[in-house]
């Protein structure tokens, strides 16, 4: 199964990555790995991106495409829990040269396990279920009805809101009348 779908945008990004020297690419990848856990923050400041533009001799849009694509490659390797060798083969299959594949291989070999463990600890959901309590009762009769079976279930769900770190309790009651 292919890890990457070859699109014109991805081909263009790979072409741009191949113009970057191996040493510079390795430094960029290590920086992306360092900031991998911060999804909202950029790995490079505006000033640093401008320096990369002059260093790579690329336009700002091209540098942004290279950074985004490199982070995408690392994210896909993490998602597929890829081994470094398999990751390099997938990169080669979309047209990346052997030297750049080896840089990705080395960086993933050094950092892949830590990225995967970091992502396992991170929750993708805003709310998490912490506790479940339930109670089931059955009402057999009542003054007006002698042959009645009314089950009553109460569920108490403890929800942890990640932004507030508080537990919210939601209570649901379910009743259904069953005549015998």
UniProtKB/TrEMBL annotation:
Domain COMM, by residue range, is 126-167
Upper lineage is: Eukaryota, Metazoa, Spiralia, Lophotrochozoa, Bryozoa
Which domain of life does this protein belong to?
A: Eukaryota
Could you tell me which Pfam families the record lists for this protein?
COMM_domain, COMM_HN
**InterPro entries linked to this entry:** COMM, COMMD10
The name this protein goes by in its record: COMMD10
Coiled-coil annotated residue ranges, if any:
none
């Amino acid at each position: 199964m292919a890890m990457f779908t070859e699109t014109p945008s991805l081909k263009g990004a790979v072409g741009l990555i191949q113009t970057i020297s191996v040493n510079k690419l390795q430094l960029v990848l290590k920086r992306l790995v360092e900031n991998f856990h911060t999804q909202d923050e950029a790995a490079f400041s505006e000033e640093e991106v401008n320096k990369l533009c002059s260093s790579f001799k690329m336009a700002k849009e091209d540098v942004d495409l290279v950074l985004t694509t490199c982070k995408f490659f690392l994210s896909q390797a993490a998602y597929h829990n890829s081994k470094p060798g398999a990751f390099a083969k997938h990169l080669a299959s979309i047209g990346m040269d052997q030297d750049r594949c080896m840089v990705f291989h080395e960086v993933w070999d050094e950092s892949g396990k830590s990225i995967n463990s970091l992502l396992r600890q991170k929750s993708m959901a805003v709310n998490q279920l912490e506790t479940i309590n339930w109670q089931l009762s059955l009402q057999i009769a009542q003054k007006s009805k002698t042959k009645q079976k009314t089950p009553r279930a109460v569920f108490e769900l403890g929800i942890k809101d990640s932004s507030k770190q508080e537990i919210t309790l939601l209570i649901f009651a379910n009743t259904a009348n069953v005549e015998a």
